[in-house]
């Protein structure tokens, strides 16, 4: 039974090393590839042979990576299918632990190559730097711990994806409840919000338990690798060569100083417009002028068709890319029970093609997600000609520039979905979302800085740290009577569970995206040419160069933040 939305995909580059009919789910078939790679590493006699060997290794990695992605896609599209769960689990439990020491060995052999110093420096310096980091951090004793960690992540996914509520006689998934928070009827919003908050709270102990186990594993992983804290380990492991924990803490301060006043202003306006004495948690998504919710589309096909028309107007390359995704059925976009929550783009590394997953229910947010994930997909398409697997993906800080820029650029054409007045409203909402997300990013990031630099902290200490951050970055919202839900609000942020410290990247990248947008308002074709240039570099150059190629600065100090947030603020004023 094919659990994937797509059938066979056209090959991008024919295999030359991995046998055509190899079962990539069987270790006994995979191991000989690594035996061959180890043996041939020793036999390299020229620079050309080293490069050739790198391509064999690269092809192996792409094939394995695609196998893992296919299993992940099948699992997230069918969280209720035992076979799909089992197949994914098999990969992470049986194959990944065996792959890691073999990959480590190849990295060592590569670094020991006498010919390596003669490889063209500009071409290989990033690869060398990353391979050195891999060797520096690898500890065989961490492999089983990382497997445990991945299994706990899967438990979080399962638990979060399984939650439903009974609302007015119908069973609803939590994402299906989101539209009700945009309803004008305030008691209805409150009812919907309470149902969801209480449903999550019922599982609060389970979420806490999963996280506590993950925390213990992570501290052990860091200690095994010789680090004082998981914070220090994570910065190294995430390959953050161009910024430090102190830079991030300074970013939090900049957000407090430059962005919080804009957020407070927006919330105060919202409260006034709604005619309320105070804003409650269920008052944040509704239109403040009590207009009915924006309904950009009824059917997912309609959402896709209109997105296509947006790309048609933006740029020929983007238009052709999105058409490819539709033709090859590389999209699973509608929400249904049994799908994992959220949205993502995954790359099928061997076909060198992207796949987009999301849970669309008919909201403006879905249009934003569609544009966002399409930006990631364009990034994957832009690097198809790159033969080194490692260079076909960029650091996350830049991946999110690709996606967030597409939200801002695509939003210029929202009239495809709306009347001119509604399009303005949707743009206002999107920019409001950008203002709101920075403080949330600071909260989630600062929370993790706290967690991982306070080993052995108590549950009460952790809660106090969380609440203090909500006070600093939460704006004026009245949570009276819902203190417990507020204290556990972080449970809904999957990154904290699945990808520790992966969140500040969104803030760094949003600054890049705002710069791309600012550029496009001066000269759209030029800005898009830079955008494509940056994307096509994949991960072959360091972050500051990727940003520069895309026409922006890699910097998140007040100097960059201030003018950008000023632009957003004045744009918001125009859209009122
Ligand atoms: Zn993204």
What structural keywords apply?
576 residues; mainly alpha; two-stranded antiparallel sheet; 64% helix; binds zinc ion
Low-confidence stretches: none
How far is the N terminus from the C terminus?
52 Å
Q: By helix and strand content, what is the structural category?
A: mainly alpha
Q: What Rg, in angstroms, do the CA atoms define?
A: 24 Å
> For the report, how would you describe the main beta sheet?
3 strands, mixed
What fraction of residues sit in β-strands? under 5%
Task: Kindly describe this structure.
The chain has helices at 27-42, 47-77, 82-111, 121-137, 142-162, 174-177, 186-202, 204-224, 230-237, 245-274, 300-314, 316-327, 364-382, 396-410, 420-452, 459-473, 483-487, 494-498, 504-522, 524-536, 543-549, 558-575, and strands at residues 164-167, 170-173, 331-334, 344-348, 353-360. The chain is mainly alpha-helical and 576 residues long. The strands form two sheets. Strands 3-5-4 form a three-stranded mixed sheet, with helices on both faces. A two-stranded antiparallel sheet has the order 1-2. The longest helix has 33 residues, at 420-452. The model has no long low-confidence stretch (mean pLDDT 95). Zinc ion is lined by residues 372, 376, 400, 403.
């Amino acid at each position: 039974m094919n659990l994937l939305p797509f059938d066979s995909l056209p090959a991008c580059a024919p295999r030359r090393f991995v046998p055509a009919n190899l079962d990539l789910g069987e270790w006994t078939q995979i191991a000989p590839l690594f035996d061959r790679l180890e043996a041939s590493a020793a036999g390299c006699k020229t620079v050309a042979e080293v490069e050739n060997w790198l391509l064999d290794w690269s092809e192996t990695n792409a094939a394995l990576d695609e196998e893992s992605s296919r299993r992940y896609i099948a699992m997230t599209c069918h969280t209720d299918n035992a076979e799909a769960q089992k197949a994914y689990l098999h990969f992470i439990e049986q194959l990944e632990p065996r792959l890691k020491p073999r990959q480590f060995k190849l990295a060592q052999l590569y670094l020991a190559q006498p010919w390596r110093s003669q490889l063209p420096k500009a071409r290989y310096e990033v690869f060398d730097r990353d391979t050195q980091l891999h060797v520096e951090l690898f500890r065989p004793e961490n492999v089983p711990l990382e497997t445990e960690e991945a299994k706990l992540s899967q438990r979080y996914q399962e638990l979060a994806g399984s939650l439903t509520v009974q609302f007015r006689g119908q069973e609803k998934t939590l994402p299906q409840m989101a539209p009700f928070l945009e309803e004008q009827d305030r008691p209805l919003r409150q009812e919907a919000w309470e149902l969801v908050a209480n449903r999550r709270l019922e599982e609060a102990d389970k979420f806490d338990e999963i996280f506590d186990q993950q925390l213990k594993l992570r501290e052990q992983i860091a200690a095994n690798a010789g680090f004082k804290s998981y914070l220090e380990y994570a910065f190294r492991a995430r390959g953050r060569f161009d910024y430090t924990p102190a830079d991030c803490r300074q970013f939090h301060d900049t957000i407090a100083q430059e962005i919080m006043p804009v957020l407070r202003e927006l919330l105060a306006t919202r409260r006034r417009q709604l005619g309320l004495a105070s804003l409650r948690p269920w008052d944040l998504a509704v239109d403040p002028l009590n207009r009915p919710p924006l309904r950009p589309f009824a059917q997912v096909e309609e959402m896709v068709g209109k997105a296509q028309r947006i790309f048609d107007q933006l740029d020929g390359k983007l238009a052709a890319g999105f058409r490819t995704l539709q033709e090859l059925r590389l999209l699973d976009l509608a929400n249904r029970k049994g799908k994992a929550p959220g949205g993502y783009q995954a790359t099928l590394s061997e076909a060198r093609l992207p796949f987009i997953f999301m849970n669309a229910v008919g909201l403006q947010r879905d249009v934003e997600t569609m544009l966002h994930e399409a930006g990631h997909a364009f990034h994957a398409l832009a690097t198809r000609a790159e033969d080194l697997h490692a260079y076909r993906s960029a650091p996350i800080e830049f991946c999110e520039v690709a996606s967030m820029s597409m939200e801002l650029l695509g939003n210029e054409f929202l009239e495809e979905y709306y009347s001119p007045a509604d399009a303005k409203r949707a743009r206002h909402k999107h920019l409001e979302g950008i203002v709101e997300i920075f403080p949330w990013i600071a909260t989630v990031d600062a929370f993790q800085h706290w967690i991982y630099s306070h080993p052995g902290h108590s549950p009460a200490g952790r809660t106090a740290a969380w609440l203090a951050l909500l006070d600093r970055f939460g704006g004026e919202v009245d949570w009276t009577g819902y203190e417990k839900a507020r204290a556990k609000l972080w449970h809904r942020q999957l990154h904290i569970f699945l990808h520790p410290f992966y969140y500040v990247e969104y803030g760094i990248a949003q600054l890049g995206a705002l710069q791309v947008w600012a550029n496009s308002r001066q000269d759209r074709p030029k800005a898009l040419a830079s955008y494509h240039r940056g994307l096509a570099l994949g991960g072959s150059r360091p972050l500051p160069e990727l940003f520069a190629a895309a026409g922006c600065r890699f910097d998140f100090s007040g100097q960059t933040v201030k003018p950008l947030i000023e632009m957003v603020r004045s744009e918001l004023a125009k859209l009122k």
